[in-house]
Amino acid sequence: MASASGSPVRVRFCPSPTGNPHVGLVRTALFNWAFAKHHGGTLVFRIEDTDAARDSEESYAQLLDSMRWLGFDWDEGPEVGGPHAPYRQSQRMDLYRDVAAKLLDAGHAYHCYCSQEELDSRREAARAAGKPSGYDGHCRELTGAQVEEYKAQGREPIVRFRMPDETITFTDLVRGELTFTPENVPDYGIVRANGAPLYTLVNPVDDALMEITHVLRGEDLLSSTPRQVALYKALTELGIAKRTPAFGHLPYVMGEGNKKLSKRDPQASLNLYRERGFLPEGLLNYLSLLGWSLSADQDVFTIDEMVAAFDIADVQPNPARFDLKKCEAINGDHIRMLDVKDFTERCAPWLKAPVAPWAPEAFDEAKWQAIAPHAQTRLKVLSEITDNVDFLFLPEPVFDEASWTKAMKEGSDALLRTAREKLDAADWTSAESLKEAVLAAGEAHGLKLGKAQAPVRVAVTGRTVGLPLFESLEVLGKEQTLARIDAALERLAA
């Protein structure tokens, strides 16, 4: 696809390296990446690191690592390069100073000497009078004498962009036609008094110089769009920009209590999902549903299927609620979509020290390979594998006291003795034979299989729920199974 001007699609993802990546940020990156892939376009990865007080190299490295983990391959940006390098704003300051000077020379911007106290006072007066409280244009048309007087007072001016006195209308790719009247979009600052350029300047200037055709970003930035539309018009007049990009503002991601999901919310951190063992493809599948859908009756799909179908026009403007349980369920579906070899490899970090509770030498690869297909059917996240298979590699099960009390009812000792006798005589190369042994033990005590297997499961694994019991017994082996039933009988006797 080409843009409205006929140019190939170019989108950008431009986070700030401050703290852990946020799942809302990931959703924005996903929609930009999928849009570029769908149209055979270019994804520009740009780092907005002009806030020295908040940005850090650690967060920068984490951003790159997260992008790689998620599978977002960028066409231009850090570590890749490209025709518009550098791709870190902190390395582009000369460009911004040059553009600001050109805007001033052409009359699209002006120096503003107002102090913060003066601005606050005038805004308060405007609010009291029921008028818009934005900047009132006080320094728009200063005389030479007024400028000299301010300079004599030692005032250092900021640079403000001069908004045109006209209504601004643009078509949002998600929300349709939007109109902003002049009184609601006042002149705004683009350079601080110390000469540092503001986001209001550097973001659109970078988009212009990097020839971005579509800006897909969060709804929280919608109010800044009319200002940027006016700035693009000025940049185009100066030959700095070739066009005004098309804008699409993505819906809020909501957390608990109808509030926007913030960085402070526990479920917002991407690192949390990595640590819990979400698959990138499972997490991205769920995040794509926050504002978009493949079809009305299909929630689970591959990233390739998403890319093939993705259209920004299908994104809904309404806020999307983050549902952790649904996210986990979809991730579980993606775990089951893996081939077993891939599944076993992805579980590896949770089967080794320091995460695994067993000694390294206790891990048995043959047992792991045998149980893996059964474990794969049960997990929602990969980190659950540790608790599911620990009974295979620990010298004895870790008993959950509540599970023990629940399973070991009156008569459980007699049932376990019968089950031990039947299992001792069973065929240990067949999980079905082990099931028949426990079924027979239950029948001998007037119990159905469900109640008969509960004490056996807790005696052997320590838990009331887990992997399929009889396949687990087969993998654990006859000697250890019978020894654990004996230990449970001793505990019951005590």
Automatic annotation (TrEMBL):
GO term, biological process aspect, one: glutamyl-tRNA aminoacylation
Keywords: Aminoacyl-tRNA synthetase, ATP-binding, Cytoplasm, Ligase, Metal-binding, Nucleotide-binding, Protein biosynthesis, Zinc
Matching CDD domains: GluRS_core
Primary location group: cytoplasm
Compartments in which it is found: Cytoplasm
Cellular compartments per GO CC: cytosol
Cofactor names: Zn(2+)
Domain (Aminoacyl-tRNA synthetase class I anticodon-binding): residue spans on this chain: 343-489
Binding site for Zn(2+): C112, C114, C139, E141
Catalytic EC class: ligase
Highest rank taxon of the organism: Bacteria
Note accompanying the cofactor annotation: Binds 1 zinc ion per subunit.
UniProt short sequence motif 'HIGH' region, positions renumbered to this chain: 15-25
Binding site for ATP: K263
Pfam families registered for this protein in UniProt: Anticodon_2, tRNA-synt_1c
Residue numbers covered by motif 'KMSKS' region: 260-264
Gene3D superfamilies: 1.10.10.350, Glutamate-tRNA synthetase, class I, anticodon-binding domain 1, HUPs
EC number(s) recorded for this UniProt protein: 6.1.1.17
Catalysed reactions listed for this entry: tRNA(Glu) + L-glutamate + ATP = L-glutamyl-tRNA(Glu) + AMP + diphosphate
TM regions (residue ranges): none
Protein family membership: Belongs to the class-I aminoacyl-tRNA synthetase family. Glutamate--tRNA ligase type 1 subfamily.
Function description: Catalyzes the attachment of glutamate to tRNA(Glu) in a two-step reaction: glutamate is first activated by ATP to form Glu-AMP and then transferred to the acceptor end of tRNA(Glu).
Protein name: Glutamate--tRNA ligase
